[in-house]
């Protein structure tokens, strides 16, 4: 992820092309549909054993947090058309903190790290230097691989242990996954209007999967009647934050990993729009990311990250203005004020959600390999890539009995294979001597986890 990579030959004036209000709303809605931003909060709700109403509330607060963060980032911080959505990276750590120390400690752990990220952007203005020094493609790619690989066992295990008949659950999961794979493939290969099917592939697979699940009695809509159509958001919807030092330290490390993830999106958007990603924009992006996470945490939302899937929509539509992105942020906030819609989403069976999640983990992991393939496969680089993957698996596969005997901070840390793998990649890349042949084959690295 070299910020000095060759700038694409794109007419930069196109990025600032005027877009009408109607077009902005339509394109903004399309961007929101492409994000599938309800998946991470639903996974987290499942890991925390939330009820359907609490799950709906978490999804609701996530929509609002992401909308606010998007408006901040695209509107005045980074000033690039970047959509902000919930990151998959912190899920394991947040679940560990929430189940061990309570939801208050989980929410409280988000606030200091968010402020630190913002301060690195402004007024300290050192984030751009950190990116150039510590986040080369070999580290970024390995982190993305580790994210997908670390989350995959959780998705698969949730399918195995889902309530109900095992055979029926496997059938529903298989149908859901097959629909998603088919839609993604058709959308990728088609040169006609069918290419847009990829934009709504997750929504289609969730809908069809839920329909199949309903035949087995796995869908319960009883909570819908009790939920309101419209409701204003409230601060600290899950209770007042509690500040646990161990939880704060692990989330500070997680935030650094999230910034690695989101930096890839910024370079992707920069390339698609033709806008220069200089130090000012990098620092502004860190400030916007941190501020968005900070404000979002007050509503109970999870840490946000830039979504590169939205850069793909920009490439397809050719509209590079920030107005549709800001409109998308407003739409997310409005949707977050509709509890009945959030309850409808929360009614999707866990086996359907985790089937989609498992496929998304594969996509995340393979996107990481796309970045890594640009790195020369020398002995040194293979160690930098392979050892973090091994350590991430070591953490994920650690027996529960062993995990229970560890101190709290070690429990939080080990529960997140992503944190262990990412830090290992960073440290190994710094301490292992680098020779000329270890260099990157190309600077055009723009792939991101989402």
How would you explain this protein's 3D organization?
The protein is mainly alpha-helical and 450 residues long. It has one domain (12-161, 219-438). Helices cover 67% and strands 1% of the residues. It is built from 20 helices and 2 strands. It has helices at 12-15, 21-33, 39-47, 52-77, 91-101, 103-121, 127-134, 137-160, 166-189, 201-214, 245-273, 279-299, 309-317, 323-336, 339-346, 350-372, 379-396, 400-404, 408-415, 417-431; strands at 84-86, 304-306. The protein has a two-stranded antiparallel sheet. Helix 2 (21-33) crosses helix 14 and helix 5 (91-101) runs antiparallel to helix 19. It starts with 11 loop residues before the first helix and ends in a 19-residue tail after the last helix. Its main location: membrane.
């Amino acid at each position: 992820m070299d910020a000095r990579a060759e700038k694409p030959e794109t007419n930069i004036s196109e990025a600032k092309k005027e877009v009408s209000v109607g077009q902005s709303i339509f394109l903004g809605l399309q961007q929101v549909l492409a994000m599938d931003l309800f998946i991470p909060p639903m996974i987290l709700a499942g890991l925390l054993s939330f009820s359907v109403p609490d799950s709906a509330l978490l999804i609701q607060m996530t929509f609002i947090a992401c909308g606010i963060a998007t408006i901040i980032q695209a509107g005045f911080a980074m000033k690039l058309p970047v959509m902000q959505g919930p990151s998959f990276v912190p899920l394991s750590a947040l679940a560990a903190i929430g189940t061990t120390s309570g939801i208050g400690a989980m929410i409280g752990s988000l606030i200091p790290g968010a402020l630190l990220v913002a301060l690195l952007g402004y007024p300290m203005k050192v984030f751009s230097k950190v990116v150039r020094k510590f986040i080369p493609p070999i580290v970024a790619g390995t982190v993305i691989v580790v994210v997908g690989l670390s989350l995959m066992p959780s998705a698969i295990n949730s399918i195995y242990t889902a309530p109900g008949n095992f055979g029926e659950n496997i059938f529903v999961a298989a149908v859901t996954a097959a629909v998603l794979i088919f839609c993604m493939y058709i959308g990728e290969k088609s040169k006609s209007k069918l290419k847009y099917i990829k934009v709504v592939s997750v929504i289609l697979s969730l809908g069809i999967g839920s329909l199949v699940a309903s035949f087995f009695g796995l869908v319960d809509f009883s909570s819908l009647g009790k939920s309101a159509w419209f409701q204003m958001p409230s601060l600290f919807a899950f209770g007042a934050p509690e500040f646990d030092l161990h939880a704060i330290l692990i989330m500070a490390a997680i935030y650094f990993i999230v910034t690695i993830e989101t930096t890839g999106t910024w370079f992707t958007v920069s390339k698609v729009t033709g806008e220069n990603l200089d130090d000012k924009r990098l620092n502004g992006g860190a400030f916007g990311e941190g501020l968005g996470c900070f404000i979002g945490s007050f509503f109970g939302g999870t840490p946000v990250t830039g979504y590169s899937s939205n850069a793909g929509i920009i490439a397809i539509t050719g509209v590079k203005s920030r107005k549709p992105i800001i409109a998308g942020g407003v739409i997310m906030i409005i949707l977050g004020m509709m509890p009945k819609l959030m309850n409808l989403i929360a009614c999707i069976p866990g086996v359907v959600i985790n089937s989609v999640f498992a496929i998304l983990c594969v996509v995340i992991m393979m996107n990481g390999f796309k970045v890594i393939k640009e790195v020369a496969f020398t002995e040194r680089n293979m160690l930098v890539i392979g050892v973090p993957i091994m350590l991430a698996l070591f953490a994920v596969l650690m027996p529960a009995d062993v995990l229970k005997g560890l101190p709290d901070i070690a429990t939080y840390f080990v529960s997140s294979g992503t944190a262990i793998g990412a830090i290992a990649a960073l440290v190994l890349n710094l301490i292992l001597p680098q020779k000329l042949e270890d260099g990157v084959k190309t600077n055009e690295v723009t792939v991101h986890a989402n």
